[in-house]
Design goal:
Blueprint (H helix, E strand, L loop, with lengths): L5 H4 L1 H16 L3 H9 L2 H32 L14 H12 L11 H4 L4 H19 L4 H17 L1 H19 L1 H73 L1
Length: 252
């Protein structure tokens, strides 16, 4: 929205980030201890709380800043059909909550192609909820802010229940709009096509394996037969030599 990022505007934040990064990754002993501490259940829960407070601040800050920027814009006349901007604040709030997932920019829309990513869903739901609560329901901004923070925190702490509820809600939404159904047909068709194309290849591999096994058995049988013939010839040769020696011995 045309404003300088906070870490560049406030010098203290930049150096705090550098020191925190260095201590977390490059201090012998301390870095490993912090890594082990963050894996404990209590520390993990505390980090989730701090992370959701930070993300909530990002969402609300981006949304409110975009709303003020649109209201202050005088290059174009305001819309005659909407008393206030909706799309721009909600979009900025959404990007404030999960915009880092799209960096670097060559990632494109990969973070949302598969769907079901909680951070993306939470950013969208929290932006819409906060905007509706403050603009439509006339709730206090601080109360709405606390509400979406608790919403994000509950989703992080109870992922199984979250997935069940969101799966039901978005399932009805996709069914009503037919959006997800259109997107899911291509993978299903491609999967069926892949299975159909893989079946002849699989059969061919099995046939080649059977042919190779048959050849090995034939080769083994030939070698065994030759060995028997060689043993029989050797036995016959020894018998002939024995018969030739016997008359000589009687003559002597």
């Amino acid at each position: 929205v045309g404003r300088m990022p906070v870490p560049l505007r406030e010098e203290t934040f930049t150096w705090m980030l550098i020191v925190a990064w260095y201590v977390s990754h490059n201090v012998p002993g301390l870095s490993d201890g912090l890594a082990a501490l963050t894996r404990t259940p209590l520390a993990a829960a505390m980090l989730k709380v701090f992370f959701n407070i930070f993300k909530t601040q990002q969402i609300v800050g981006s949304l409110e800043l975009a709303s003020k920027a649109v209201a202050a814009e005088d290059m174009l006349p305001k819309s005659s059909y909407f008393p206030q901007a909706i799309a721009a604040p909600v979009l900025c709030g959404f990007l404030g909550g999960c915009g880092g997932m799209f960096l670097p920019f060559d990632n494109g829309l990969k973070p949302i192609e598969a769907g079901g990513v909680w951070n993306v869903r939470a950013s969208f739901l929290c932006s819409v909820t906060y905007f509706a609560a403050t603009r439509i329901c006339s709730c206090e901004p601080l109360d709405a802010k606390m509400g979406i923070c608790l919403l994000r925190l509950a989703g992080d702490l109870f992922p199984v229940l979250r997935d069940v509820l969101l799966g039901s809600i978005f399932g009805l939404l996709y069914m009503a709009t037919n959006v997800q159904g259109v997107q899911q047909k291509a993978p299903a068709q491609s999967e069926d096509k892949e299975q159909r194309t893989s079946r002849p290849a699989k059969k061919l591999d099995e046939k080649e394996a059977e042919e190779e096994e048959r050849r090995e058995k034939q080769g083994a049988s030939r070698r065994a037969k030759k060995l028997e013939e060689k043993e029989a010839e050797e036995q016959e040769r020894k018998e002939k030599q024995g018969k030739q020696r016997k008359p000589k011995e009687e003559k002597d």
